[in-house]
Design goal:
Length: 329
């Protein structure tokens, strides 16, 4: 398979679906705990690593939120983002749209400005340091109260921070997109891009709601669309990007084995799918690891990898000039 990091003919990748808190590697968790004098409930690295066995989305989210308590200062957020960007560059990523979960930090007393300052610092140097252009997307926690999301949007817009858009994530079932119509309407009116996780554990109808009620431009995951032929027809016709995360789907038991992943069938059907790492520190790897495993276990071809790369750039919110540069046009 072509290696996007070394093969100059291969189209580089845009990563459109990763949570920066999900790039918190075990070593960095211990380092930040020491720096911030936080007692971790783990004896050592092996003890922590032994907990990376998940039965569903919620079992992962419990560990994800517990571990991010080591993030306290702007420096912590900057260190985390720099470590992701350096690793993503090695994976062949040249453009990254990065989710962060402000409520997960503000709810435990970390000021929004610390988060924005740290991530902003790391992202500002990314193009010069790593050749990776970037954007930040604030992920609303859908299982927290809607008025909190509303207040967050007000704070984000008021902060003046360079924000690409907003997303919707965390526990999906029971928290339909319909709850967030007003917040997403306000975000669109403020000129922000809008995306939402839908159809990961939730039903295909949540994908429809995200499109019809929230006006999203991409669906994060969306894998369960394959259960609904009419929905698939619509997604193909309207070229709605789906940001798939294959290794995440295996680790969170959305599919039993990678060999069962429908990504090749989805590509063949004409769906605008992309490959992403979601939470690379938790799910067994970065975007290059996802592509390598797809090649080994599903038989992904070079032509399909190229299609995925082009899809990722076309589906990104990069400027037309940056897209043309990345597409080699
Ligand atoms: N937050 C981080 N990873 C997530 C996922 N896979 N689904 C929903 N929320 C998330
Ligand atoms: Zn996600």
């Amino acid at each position: 398979m072509t290696d996007p990091a070394t093969d100059t003919r291969a189209t580089p990748l845009a990563e459109l679906h990763m949570h920066i808190e999900g790039a918190l590697e075990p070593e960095l968790i211990f380092e930040l705990a020491q720096r911030n004098r936080i007692d971790l409930p783990y004896a050592d690295l092996d003890d922590l690593r032994s907990r990376y066995e998940f039965t569903d989305l919620q079992s992962f989210l419990d560990l994800y939120f517990a571990n991010m308590t080591v993030l306290r200062t702007a420096q912590d957020f900057a260190d985390l983002a720099r470590s992701y960007l350096a690793r993503a560059a090695v994976a062949g990523v040249r453009h990254a749209e990065i989710f962060f979960n402000p409520q997960a930090h503000t709810a435990r007393g970390v000021p929004l400005r610390e988060v924005l300052e740290g991530l902003g610092d790391a992202l500002a140097g990314s193009e010069a340091e790593h050749g990776v252009s970037t954007g930040l997307i604030a992920g609303i926690l859908r299982d927290r109260p809607v008025p909190e999301a509303d207040a967050l949007l007000t704070d984000l817009v008021g902060s003046g921070a360079p924000l690409l858009g907003i997303g919707l994530d965390s526990a999906e079932v029971g928290y339909p997109p319909s709850l967030f119509v007003d917040v997403f309407g306000r975000a669109r009116a403020a000129g922000l891009h809008v995306v939402a996780h839908a159809g990961e554990e939730g039903p295909p109808d949540y994908i429809r709601q995200a499109l019809d009620l929230l006006g999203v431009e991409r669906i994060d995951h969306g894998i369960r669309c394959v259960e609904d032929d009419d929905l698939v027809d619509r997604l193909v016709r309207d070229r709605v990007p789906l940001t798939l995360c294959p290794l995440s789907n295996v680790r969170l038991r959305v599919v039993d084995r990678l060999a069962d992943h429908p990504i090749r069938r989805m590509l063949a059907r004409g769906l605008h799918v992309t490959v992403n790492s979601d939470d690379p520190a938790y799910f067994g790897g970065y975007v290059d690891d996802n592509l390598a495993r797809l090649r080994a276990d599903v038989g992904l071809t070079d032509a399909e990898r190229e299609r995925l790369a082009r899809n990722s750039i076309e589906a990104s919110f990069a400027s037309p000039a940056r897209k043309a540069e990345l597409l080699g046009g």
